[in-house]
């Protein structure tokens, strides 16, 4: 900064001698006050001329600035401002005012006033803001013109320099101000880079030589872009997947590519699709040129093209700089194609095929289990969406007969998208029994979302075969023929029937076998009539064998014996026309009805009767004595007796004939399962264990007492959906063939149906099979419900019996034993010395050496008692103080006694025992509640009672309607929806009674605690500390009830479920169980105080650290129990049923899968199980280490026993825990494990209590 020294501090006069013209120069600073701007011209000329005194002065011209009042020259304006006067002058010019003054003598004065400058003006920029555009990459020293600042002061005080303000160091490293007298330039001293910084804000001020600062010039420097960068995509590859059913109408983009341009301003990027292998009209995508959003414009089809690969180009507006990125769009398959049913029938059975029907022909003689073809299921969708295909028979008409074929999926699949089924016959076909035509509807279904299905009809025509041999109506025929008969007379007629369906197959030809009688008898081959050809000469009877031969198949035939008897009409005797009459009838016909009629020759009137009849009351046949008609009078049952044989005789004759009655079967018996008990099958659904994807479930069998076809049995599922996963064969084998989406446990109901004709019969009962996952046995209802129900019933019975015994004992105690003990106690004499020695451990010397009361027994007692009261502040014996008062009354000695607070009444040994037993009994009831609660949890019974009420809960439903209403209420809650949708009412009763037992036990525990507590309190048996503890125990019991219902509520409402699982909150479960253990510990500890007698510790001393260690074991046990509650609440015992590792890991990888991390400690089943394992092993190791370390220490008899029991119990508890894990949490073992934790805690409490009494060192 320059410093200027002002030399003209006062006005200066320059005057010279003059003759005619006098020059007067006067210098003065601007801003001089107005009063000093006056000049006396006469005085100014005093030294210049001698005539000055006579001059009269006047201005030659009027002046703006001056006026003359002779001889005074006066400055007219108010102030002298150099810049105003010389505003048009250059700054370097002198600023002055000059005027001519005349006198009357023509003397001229030239007056010049030089105005000297002062720094009274600040520099200023005429504008405050300037915007500049400077392109990047310009050369160094490039200059840009800036507006200059102005200062009206003279050169002495005007602008000195310019500088930046409010800038960072980077500005001064890039820009420099360059100043000339008339210009200001911005000079680049470093190359600009728009991509680094595209804008600079400069703030410039001007400073004059006097130090004044100008206003701020704001210069906005915009760095222009050179466009040297090409667009750059944010990803090297864009890859996405969309479903094939993505609607082209949907305007939302499937993918958005994004490119960035590192240039500053040329950032407008245009996107285009290039290099497609498909014509534009077939390419299904387009791209938004400005946003890069790729959208679908045509319908996609995974089966046509599953992956599209193309490229997208990003370019600037100039089109010169560009880049390309590859795009991959995978079309994910959706289940939009229905499965196709392709039938491949063997040529020998194929008949006709069209789009809907497939018609085949089967011969009725086809063997059982014959493969007639296969069905190939194909689905154009991928296996990733339809998973697998299944085929089932939806219907088989007519329904009156069993379906003749079945589907067998035993063939290995060779492709992911196809499944092959074999078509096999399931039974013998018989055209004659109604097997004519079957219409079978096959349904193929995939397992995609949504599941699609297709149907096709298989029509089976049963071809009749010539497989039935002709059957004679009788095996033996007997005909009578008179000797007087003419040749050609009709002897009789035999008849055979062929049951074949086709008329051509029913034609029968008759033929005689005995050729030597052809000359006697002739048979008509078409109708079986026998004619007499020639009369026999040597015999009166002869036999002929007749054959009935199938005309189409001579290998099918039947034969009968024909006996011809010739008789003399003159000597005629009555004889039966046949020796044997055969009749066929079906069972269970409406009685009475005619069976048939017997015939005799025409030799006279006859009377018929049954020759032998054991009991006419039960014999089902009678014969009409006159007509020979045989009637059935009692219902016939083929299963009881299938054949009857009895003789018929003619009255007053020895001639007899045999009657044979064949009872034909009728479909009158239902199939009956050999074993109707529920079956519980445990299987593993993991693919690793089943390479062929089929699991044998069970084998069932039902018996039908009917014969032949009526007795053939097939098996079916009542729920058609079960065919999607299971297949049941005709031999009763149940196979699990589809593991996908199978949710176990599953409840299978199977019924049996015979092949009876004309109507098939079904079994009246169904066979129930529960299929459960072996790795989740606790979820299976299995017979554990039945066992647990029986166990629960037994427990309830025991509770009731014990409760009744308790009431009876209390009554007996109050009525008899209590008064007896009181009377006996009152008879005891009081011995002061013995009481003092026993209760206060006072030596006899104190008693004997009390001189002040020597010779007075009562005074000695008082002295001893007062001494002990003074030395033992814990002594509170109301009885002894009473004796002290009695001693004072009887004694003449006066002993000053300090006032003593009235103590509580003493507790006798009996009172202590009663209180101790009461506390122990309540602790036992609490333990029972814990065990029953564990069973309730393990049997999934806790959510069966969906409401809570103090009184109404004590009355379970009694009628069927009430039970059904309760069951319907239960169906409205999540547990039924998720787990028990197939539960029956009987099963619901079982879980309901389990929860009911738990609630009733809890209330019984409260009553067992409350009533005795009120009695003891009323009788004053509690001291102040005990009263506080009793209140705490009562409060904990009440809190337990509230926590129990609060826990149950968490599993009843969907909004309180954790992860949507129908189960109680593990947090509330842990609080419920933890409170129970705290209550149990407090009750048991206080019962020890009242029931335990002091032990003798003559030579026993233990360090104080041992007691602290036991308390540490107690704490560790309780923490492990609470961790176990979280295991139970999350069913975490089922996730890793292995030990010592969890699967293949020491620390499972899923330990920290939840976020935030602390949720894993309480909500992650894997982490919860791991924590319980670690805590359990730590507790076991700590207890065993303590037991081993304490073997060398004398703990006392009771403490040592407690220690040994604790060590044994911790080994048993650890074994139970490991077994529960390995055997997938069986109910019995899990309940024992929970009860074991109570036992372990009990032994730890007993050890801590006894160690507390042992003297410490």
UniProtKB/TrEMBL annotation:
PROSITE patterns: CADHERIN_1, CADHERIN_2. The chain crosses the membrane at residues 789-817, 915-935, 1000-1018, 1030-1047, 1067-1085, 1106-1130, 1174-1193, 1205-1225, 1231-1249. Keywords: Calcium, Heme biosynthesis, Iron, Membrane, Metal-binding, Oxidoreductase, Repeat, Signal, Transmembrane, Transmembrane helix. InterPro entries: Cadherin-like_dom, Cadherin-like_sf, Cadherin_CS, COX15/CtaA_fam, HemeA_Synthase_type2. It comes from the Eukaryota. GO terms for biological process: heme A biosynthetic process; homophilic cell adhesion via plasma membrane adhesion molecules. It is a multi-pass membrane protein. GO terms for molecular function: calcium ion binding; heme A synthase activity; oxidoreductase activity, acting on NAD(P)H, heme protein as acceptor. Residues 126-233, 234-341, 354-472, 473-576, 608-673 form the Cadherin domain. The keyword Iron applies. Pathway: Porphyrin-containing compound metabolism; heme A biosynthesis; heme A from heme O: step 1/1. Pfam families: Cadherin (PF00028), COX15-CtaA (PF02628). This is Cadherin domain-containing protein.
